[in-house]
């Protein structure tokens, strides 16, 4: 397990920023930490990285207690804060070389070149950071977070303030990072979660309201899932309900149906098609609108 957070509480004065928060992130997952402004997302990021000490609770990164062995744990973490703290009067390659030197990396020039290529900084790497667009500045920030080859990458609001094209580019970069590393992504943008995340943790007023896949959260919010399925020929609806454990079914058109259940039945529908030698043309859950789920879980809390 890459990140394990247990019963974290953090108070600033009379305001409780985090209230008994617990969650786990497995190796290789891209997890979206989703919540309204002021929900406690950034505080949680800072606690996981060791920059803020909680009042209560424990955080482990790759099995190492972040407060008990802070330096050892931080070596395993790459971090891009919400406000990207770059040295604007330095050149891109110069800045990344400085960061690599702080990590005491071997063959700094090679590692910097690898980061420039991986983050798409090649066309701009000869420029002063202050002259870059915000999208390229974010790429520099992500490059510094990756330069030590960390096992866990924490990105706090990485696409805030970017234009649509820049957002698409940064999201693709995050997807690429997630193929090799564990990524914890803080955001309040629902589309971000749907685009890049394997798992979602929704936080509001310092408490976790829901966590799991989007479909699992839909079950928590609605108590049901609607799955659309289309076969190559019409089927017996009563027989299908009994076979897959659904609660209701309605015909949309010809051989296309909406099946309602209190659990994910996609595998059961696939198995039903195979067992009955029926072709399967379409299969997807319908209740995966993060904006609606987010509103239901955080409104008036």
The gist of it:
36% of the residues lie in helices and 29% in strands. The protein has 301 residues and is α/β, with parallel strands linked by helices.
Task: Provide key terms for this protein.
301 residues; alpha/beta; 6-stranded mixed sheet; 4-stranded antiparallel sheet; globular
Structure description:
- The protein has 301 residues and is an alpha/beta fold.
- It has helices at 41-49, 70-74, 92-102, 108-118, 134-146, 164-178, 190-196, 214-222, 237-244, 266-275, 290-298, and strands at residues 3-12, 15-25, 30-34, 56-61, 64-65, 77-80, 152-156, 182-187, 199-204, 207-212, 225-231, 248-253, 256-261, 280-285.
- The strands form 3 sheets. Strands 6-7-8-3-9-10 form a 6-stranded mixed sheet, sandwiched between helices. Strands 2-1-4-5 form a 4-stranded antiparallel sheet. A 4-stranded antiparallel sheet has the order 12-13-11-14.
- Helix 3 (92-102) packs across helix 4 (108-118), helix 5 (134-146) runs parallel beside helix 6 and helix 8 crosses helix 11 (290-298).
- The protein is globular, with a radius of gyration of 23 Å.
- 38% of the residues are buried.
């Amino acid at each position: 397990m890459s990140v394990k957070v247990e019963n974290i509480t953090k108070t600033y004065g009379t305001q409780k920023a985090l209230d008994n928060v617990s969650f786990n992130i497995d190796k290789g997952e891209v997890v979206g930490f989703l919540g309204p402004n002021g929900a406690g997302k950034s505080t949680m990021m800072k606690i996981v990285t060791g920059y803020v000490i909680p009042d209560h609770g424990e955080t482990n990164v790759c099995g190492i207690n972040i407060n008990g062995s802070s330096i050892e744990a931080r070596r395993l973490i790459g971090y891009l804060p919400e406000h990207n703290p770059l040295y604007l009067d330095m050149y891109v390659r110069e800045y990344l070389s400085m960061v690599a030197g702080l990590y005491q990396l071997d063959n700094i020039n090679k590692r910097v070149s690898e980061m420039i290529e991986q983050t798409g900084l090649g066309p701009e790497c000869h420029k002063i950071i202050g002259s870059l667009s915000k999208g390229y500045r974010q790429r520099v920030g992500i490059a510094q977070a990756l330069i030590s080859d960390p096992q866990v990458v924490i990105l706090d609001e990485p696409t805030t303030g970017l234009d649509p094209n820049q957002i698409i580019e940064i999201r693709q970069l995050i997807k690429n990072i997630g193929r090799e590393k564990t990524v914890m992504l803080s955001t309040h943008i629902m589309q971000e979660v749907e685009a890049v995340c394997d798992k979602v943790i929704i936080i509001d007023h310092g408490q976790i309201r829901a966590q799991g896949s989007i479909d699992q959260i839909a079950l928590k919010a609605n108590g049901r899932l609607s799955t659309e399925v289309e076969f190559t020929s019409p089927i017996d609806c009563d027989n299908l309900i009994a076979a897959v454990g659904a609660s209701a079914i309605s015909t949309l058109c010809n051989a296309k149906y909406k099946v309602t259940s209190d659990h994910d039945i996609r595998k059961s529908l696939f198995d039903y098609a195979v067992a009955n030698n029926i072709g399967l043309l379409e299969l997807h859950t319908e209740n995966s609108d993060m904006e609606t789920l987010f509103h239901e879980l955080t409104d008036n809390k």
